Fold gibberellin 3beta-dioxygenase.
Amino acid sequence: MADQEIPPPSQLVPLDFTSVQTVPESHLWPNATELSAAIKLDKRVSLPLIDLVSDGASELLGRACEEWGMFQLINHGISKTLIEEAEEETRRLFTLPATQKMKTLRSPGSLTATGYGMAGISKYHPKLMWHEGFTILGSPINEAKKLWPNDYKRFCDVMEEYQREMKGLGERIIRLILKFLGISEEEMMKLLTSTDESIGKPHMALRLNSYPPCPDPGQVMGLAAHTDTSLCTILHQVGNNGLQIFKDGTGWVPLSPMSGTLIVNIGDLLHILSNGRFPSILHRVMIQENKEHRFSLAYFYDPPGEIYISPYCKPLSDTPQFPLYRSVNVKEYFAIKAKKTGKGLPAIKI
């Protein structure tokens, strides 16, 4: 990585995708053809499908986390109407003219602001991705007014409700997963509903993703391979957006999610907490060989920034368990991962 030319932060702004007839040099990935060829060798798979209201949901979630680090969820309690409204508002945002979206451009390196921009992992790669995003933390009203001076209320109402519902769902999922690990209610409270001012509150973010049609999809990357930092991420895909996961022993596997499901994946922080039992799964997005505009909505659930995450080492049998990672402050881990170009787990391994 040291000898590659990384674009300076000032250049990390999305293309005006509607104005390009060919893929610019800045977005041509040198190994994209090989990546595409490898995809054809993989079989599409269906992730474990879990009914959240089933009696054995905790056990099913835990087993899926151990085997895959990712699963599909049905009976999750998020109304179809709300999801469709969030889809509609996401589409409305990304089909605005580029000059309008740029009015809400996030400053380089900003982690605490709502607005338009590129994925945070862009800074780790010499080539840019065929992607644009809009991150929402709390109310998007200030930025929404810049996008739609006279018609911003519906976007705000829908996105605020979507975040409320996702927050409740995230808490419910993580509680069931932590129950599977045998973690106490007291420890769960710190991670999920802390009122301790010294450690702060859980941190959530909603990221709207856009993958525009591409004149040469075989030469670009939608979203480069990465792991999420979160405890967990809840993803809604509008159609099949080219999501793939890396499965040990198999390679890159294109996913075929069931219609109406939400996809949940484990992030680094839950990987650490589980002492490596739950893999923080490597995933990426490839641009499809069609002319459709693809979207997704990703909700990231993180614990309070000042809390320390320590491996939970309950013995699985009579054999004692030892921590694989050192205890790490959440804010510290974000900083470590950024310094290590997105690869934080090896840096804290014991």
Residues 48-305 form a domain with the Jelly Rolls fold (CATH 2.60.120.330). Residues 1-7 have pLDDT under 50 and may be disordered. DSSP finds ten helices and 14 strands in the chain.
